[in-house]
């Protein structure tokens, strides 16, 4: 049975997806909780009658969301948070400002992680050409365990010739954990920027901005922050102060809540990372949903989520290994996203389809099936996965 670690109990009653569905696939998309769905329904109802809407209503929801996200990542300044629609947008801000990085020189490198999510790869194609930079990819070792060797290779690749490092907290396909504190320290030593994709970790794993000290953190909300699709959050450090935004949204300018004076065009941006907000970032329907989701995650607490998922899968993982599957040792991965490497010559996609036919939802990613539990999962879900693979 699940040990109730750190007082976090199963939250299945907060979710309405079918009782017989064994959903172990939060890394693809989180189910909306009752609270998040209700926030969206309430927001739609409010919009049926816009009487009384004030200019400040265009900004207030975003202010709350920034404060909550700052709390989640231990960022003392909520003004460093920007509201974005997708990872591609957040990384494009980094690419747009990379040419203005102090000390940037032709021939320097952008260091990437092997088999990374496409949005973390495509973002650098254009800037690497225009600035005459090279892309250096640090591939995953061929065998497990991989975490220690992979981290050592990444650190070795970060040299004074490095302009930018793009790294997640864990690998989106295999769950391998990266030592962002050590990577961040090495980046600071050589003068490189560090951009972190937190989509598969922030919300489910503790993230400490002040310890890691990245230059940028970019997160989509619909996975481990358990919010709506097409909305995300980014945090930009001092390297981006005074930088160039992707678009010149009117809401991002000073005094833009004074609608009666909008024809008095304002050259000055609002403080911090406000200039990097996507246009129409109000999202009257989705912003209340994201606020509810962030409150929910802060209540769950990422550390307690990790303990819950660890306990949930503790008895199952050794059984999977006895069946010929391979899993990164505990010290080299998170507990909420598990790359379960399929036996040699097996087809991960065929296995995932066979599991779905048994009402068990996981993802096929590369050489593994990706199992991603959360606090709505039960022992029954874990056992259903095991029995289906047997």
Describe this protein with a few key phrases.
390 residues; Aspartate Aminotransferase, domain 1; Aspartate Aminotransferase, domain 2; 7-stranded mixed beta sheet; 4-stranded antiparallel beta sheet; 13 helices; 14% strand; disordered N terminus
Question: Can you give a write-up of this model?
Answer:
This protein has helices at 34-47, 57-73, 87-97, 119-122, 125-130, 147-157, 180-190, 209-212, 286-300, 302-313, 316-322, 348-357, 379-389; strands spanning 22-23, 81-84, 109-113, 134-138, 162-168, 193-197, 216-220, 232-236, 326-327, 338-341, 360-361, 363-365, 368-371. It is α/β, with parallel strands linked by helices. The strands form three sheets. Strands 2-8-7-6-5-3-4 form a seven-stranded mixed sheet, sandwiched between helices. A four-stranded antiparallel sheet has the order 9-10-13-12, with helices on one face. Strand 12 (363-365) and strand 13 form a beta hairpin. The longest helix is centred in the N-terminal third of the chain and has 17 residues, at 57-73.
Summary, kept brief:
With 390 residues, this protein is of the alpha/beta class. The chain has two domains: 108 residues, Aspartate Aminotransferase, domain 1, CATH 3.90.1150; 241 residues, Aspartate Aminotransferase, domain 2, CATH 3.40.640. It is 34% helix and 14% strand.
Quick one: CATH superfamily of the largest domain? Type I PLP-dependent aspartate aminotransferase-like (Major domain)
Query: Helix tally?
Result: 13
Strand portion: 5-15%
- What is the 3D shape? globular
CATH class of the largest domain: Alpha Beta
**Low-confidence blocks of residues:** 1-5
Largest sheet, order of strands side by side? 2-8-7-6-5-3-4
Reported CATH architecture of the largest domain = 3-Layer(aba) Sandwich
Taking the sheet with the most strands, its summary is: 7 strands, mixed
Task: Report the order of strands and helices.
Answer: EHHEHEHHEHEHEHEEHHHEEHEEEH
CATH topology of the largest domain: Aspartate Aminotransferase, domain 2
What is the end-to-end distance?
20 Å
- Radius of gyration from the CA trace? 22 Å
Kindly give the count of domains: 2
Keywords: Aminotransferase, Pyridoxal phosphate, Transferase
Domain Aminotransferase class V: 65-368
GO molecular function, one term: transaminase activity
Protein name: Aminotransferase class V-fold PLP-dependent enzyme
